[in-house]
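We modelled the chain as a single entity of 151 amino acids. Its sequence is:
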Amino acid sequence: MSNNLPVSASVPASVQARVPASDPAPAVSPAAPTALVVDDSRAEQRLIAALLAQMGMTVAAVDSGESALVWLAHQTPDVLVIDVVMPGMSGFDLCRQLRARPETAQVPVIFCTSKDQDFDRFWGLRQGGSVYLTKPFAPQDLIAAVTSCLA
């Protein structure tokens, strides 16, 4: 079963409950940057999507590397936030495939994972990752990473 959050021009309905009513997400223009979140944990998808939506981004989320490739066959995001440990295709495998495709070769990849060893970080960056964050992460670290990648 695939847990996919649709791309929308505002905060996805499945994320709205996580965004405090006192701090609504800003309106997103048609030219808003797009992010694809790839994580097999629905809770992590929602958390990351809510943070990105609060930045004014259009956000889509899928639960596997395979689902990401299907999504990416139809559109190209401005940034990807990818978990490393997922059933089937790992985040590292997905990143290698993205780097081999001309349409996604230059899209920044932010790894957001529980794998916190120095070798994991080295390997993630070697696979083509732009930034390597470990879970649990501080929201401001993800925001800073995305902001840096979009600059």
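As a brief sanity check on the tokenised model: The chain has one domain: 31-150. The two ends are 36 Å apart (CA to CA).
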